[in-house]
UniProtKB/TrEMBL annotation:
Domain (NADP-dependent oxidoreductase) ranges: 27-262
InterPro entries: AKR (IPR020471), AKR5G (IPR044500), Aldo/ket_reductase_CS (IPR018170), NAD(P)_OxRdtase_dom_sf (IPR036812), NADP_OxRdtase_dom (IPR023210)
Site positions per UniProt: Lowers pKa of active site Tyr: 79
Active site (catalytic residues): 54 (proton donor)
CDD domains listed in its UniProt record: AKR_AKR5G1-3
Organism: Marinilabilia rubra
The keyword Protease is assigned to this record: no
Pfam family, one: Aldo_ket_red
The protein's name in its UniProt record: Aldo/keto reductase
GO molecular function annotation: oxidoreductase activity, acting on the CH-OH group of donors, NAD or NADP as acceptor
Binding site for substrate: 112
SUPFAM superfamilies: NAD(P)-linked oxidoreductase
């Protein structure tokens, strides 16, 4: 992944260009999402990530519809929630998401969690929607290697994305390597560990060294690891600051030091238990 600027992309296995830095809107209420999304789009973001479970697809749809940027310039991701998994219910959930988002297609649709006994049927629905041209790319979220192997045994179309918890305390290098081997792009949620990165001494040191904020150091580390990243904020200043990471590079030595912080520490639930 060549890191150039905020509009830079990574090529997925099917040739779709996905912006490698985006705005996450988890826990962003509908009455704040329009201002946040407009701030992001005005600054140069072209990738917004939501989910049915976030209950703000309608707010995002309004925000995108009211912005001057053409729909085709914005990469929109949403996800099918656990209670909607299964073939027919996934189709219904997809159509409901499209209506809320005020669009007739998605750039990326993900299976939010690997619901045992259901994610295979859910994936078949995504494959059909993809083959119909209603989704540009399809993928999964929170899938461990054994989930991916199970899914890929029967899949006609392999997943193009695996969006998982990824941050300095949780790298899951074996999963990263498996995804890379199978041309599944890795994507991070909770890259800033819900604020816990600001408590780590190493990042205070690196912030001084590179004259960048701790958030900027972590997001830059993600991208240099080849991981698509979607930090969340509702504040214009932070949204802009999170993207101000293209004028420096973390050294190999410091990248390795950050890697060594890995302690298999999760912020969210384990996919095997959720």
């Amino acid at each position: 992944m060549k890191i150039n600027n905020l509009k830079g992309t990574v090529e997925l296995s099917n040739g779709v260009q996905m912006p490698y830095l985006g705005l996450g809107v988890f826990q962003t209420p509908n009455d704040q999402i329009e201002e946040a999304v407009h701030a992001a789009l005005d600054y140069g973001y072209r990738h917004i990530d939501t989910a049915a479970f976030y209950r703000n697809e309608d707010g995002l749809g309004k925000a995108i519809h009211s912005h001057s940027l053409p729909r085709k310039k914005i990469f929109i991701t949403t996800k099918v929630w656990n209670s909607d998994q299964g073939y027919d219910s996934t189709i219904d959930a997809f159509n409901a998401s499209l209506e809320k988002l005020r669009t007739d297609y998605l750039d990326l649709y993900l299976v939010h969690w690997p619901v045992k006994g259901k994610y295979q049927e859910t994936w078949k629905a995504l494959e059909d929607l993809y083959e119909e041209g209603r989704i540009r790319a399809i993928g999964v979220s929170n899938f461990m290697q054994h989930h991916l192997e199970d899914l890929m045994e029967s899949a006609k179309v392999p997943p193009m994305i695996n969006q998982v918890e990824f941050h300095p305390h949780l790298r899951q290098q074996d999963l990263v390597d498996f995804c890379k081997k199978n041309k599944i792009q890795y994507e991070a949620w909770s890259p800033l560990m819900q604020g816990k990165v600001f408590e780590i001494d190493l990042f205070r040191e690196l912030s001084e060294k590179y004259k960048k904020s701790i958030a900027q150091i972590v997001i830059r580390w993600d991208l240099q690891k080849g991981v698509v990243t979607i930090p969340k904020s509702v504040h214009k200043e932070r949204i802009e600051a999170n993207a101000n990471i293209f004028d420096f590079e973390i050294s190999d030595e410091d990248m390795a030091r950050i890697d060594q912080l890995d302690c298999d520490g999760r912020i969210g639930p384990h996919p095997n238990d959720f």
